[in-house]
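Async update (no meeting this week)

Hi team, since we skipped the sync, here's where things stand on the single-chain job. The sequence we agreed to prioritize is pasted below, unchanged from the tracker. I ran it this morning and attached the output directly underneath so nobody has to dig for it. Comments welcome in thread, and please keep replies under the output.
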Amino acid sequence: MRAVTTTSRLLASGAGWQVRDVVCEAGPGDRAYEERHETVCIAVVTAGTFQYRSSQGAAVMAPGSILLGNADACFECGHEHARGDRCLALHVQPEWMESLLAEIPDARRLDFARPNLPPSPQLAALWAEAESARDDGDAEALEELALRLAGAVAALLSGTSPGSHPLRRRDERRVTAALRRIEAEAHTRLSLEGLARDAAMSRYHFLRTFRQVVGTTPHQHVLGLRLHRAAIRLRRTRDPVSTVALDAGFEDLSTFNRRFRRVMGATPSTFRTRHRVRKEADSESRPTRSAP
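Output:
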């Protein structure tokens, strides 16, 4: 075990996978200890630098780099030149990874042959989304991002494109059914696993197909519907903001306020006030009809 310079906080988990926020405060004066990856590890460096050494080789890790670790493999992390780093780490069981690899052409190798992937444009968007989900405490988004990150890494390592694949009518029909369910139940808890199961598809295939058909992920689509419906209700009613948030499907008011402001450009209360001011101004500017 390392000295108590590293903290690891569980952000999201499911069958065979978990995502952790790992913060290390080690510096040049701290000794690097040998550790072991208990599972397959894919970690995005979000801040700081460090030296990573494993049986696959050695690499200097920087923001945007992807650390690759094989299950049961030993490794060392050193901070010989600067203090501290932070990573968003995906830990998955080999069986979880094997089922994912089976759906990616030419990606049949389970163990990583290299210690890392350098920062790349292909993974920049995922990195940004992952940090936002971490900061928002968005476990549902992290479940999708875990699949997308692992799939993108596997595709890059195999030399294939992680992008679109030929669509079949059956897949479009299944995604359409999922869209109908989301429209009817957006205010409830909708898991990626449940949506994929109802579509008779694997989670990775469903997620990839949904993005190709709709242009967003299932979670992004659900979030957009919730915010839209909340905005409409804020404009039409005087219901408390907390009631609007909970009825739309948000579990706490602070999360709703933060996301509403990010998308709509104003807090829910300001959004409602602005609409009322405009509505009253429009009403006053309309000419009144004189009685015949």
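Quick observations from my side:
The longest strand covers residues 6-14.
DSSP finds ten helices and ten strands in the chain.
Reply here if anything looks off.
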